[in-house]
Description:
This protein has two domains: about 5-155, no CATH class; about 185-235. By secondary structure, it is an alpha+beta fold. Residues about 1-5 and about 10-25 have low confidence and may be disordered. Strands 1, 2, 5, 6 and 7 form a five-stranded antiparallel β-sheet that branches. It has helices at about 5-15, 40-45, 65-70, 95-105, 130-175, and strands at about 25-30, 50-55, 55-60, 80-85, 90-95, 115, 125, 185-190, 200-205, 210-215, 220-225, 230. The protein is rod-shaped and about 105 Å long.
Amino acid sequence: MTMRGDLRSVAQGAATVATLATLPHSRWCILSTSGGRTLPLARSLDAAGLDAWAPVRTLRRPMPGQRRARYLGLRPRMREIDYAILPGFVFVGAEHLDDLARIALDDALLHPPFSVFQMAGRVPLIGSASLDGLREEEADAAVAIQAQRDAETRAQAQRARAEQMRTDRARRTALRRERRDFEQGARVAVLDMPSMAGMIGSVESSSGTKATIHFGGSLTMEIEAWQVIPAPLLDGHA
Length: 238
């Protein structure tokens, strides 16, 4: 059975002659519109104060112009697009039937065009429970898109960490290429080595890329020159 057939069955099973004296708030009427106008109509009526609803699912799609990125094996930029789960139909609280009749006949076209769904000259009303299946489908779609968002957030964090690691490696590689000469006996400190934090040593020898430093007692170490700074500069790197 098609979705339209399902909706007709629901309407037939819950068909009621719509009279203003007997419209409980738990009943809904059905509006018909074109598929592309489904969500704009629901949002427009809801903004106007009518209790309008159309179940929606959000899907991620590549942004325009991203086809080349795919061909190049790059990650395309994505956007989120809302789609109607039941295109062509909007549900409105039955208490708004008078308002809907007035809006449908209004030439001002303040809302996308629509008609009130009728059967045999009657306006069928459906109970709130009849929409539970659509509500569940909408809720499942919301869970699915949130899972995709969370996965993308984690992927972005991983890419950021990887990029930072590449940046750090590039920085260290560039620093290792630099030559630094230190005078014998110069007082120095060491950067980027937590175990040496706060320790001051004296240079015993320097080769441009490395320096041999004595820290007192029997502790003498060979340190890469890019990690060595004159002791008076230590405070500026804290």
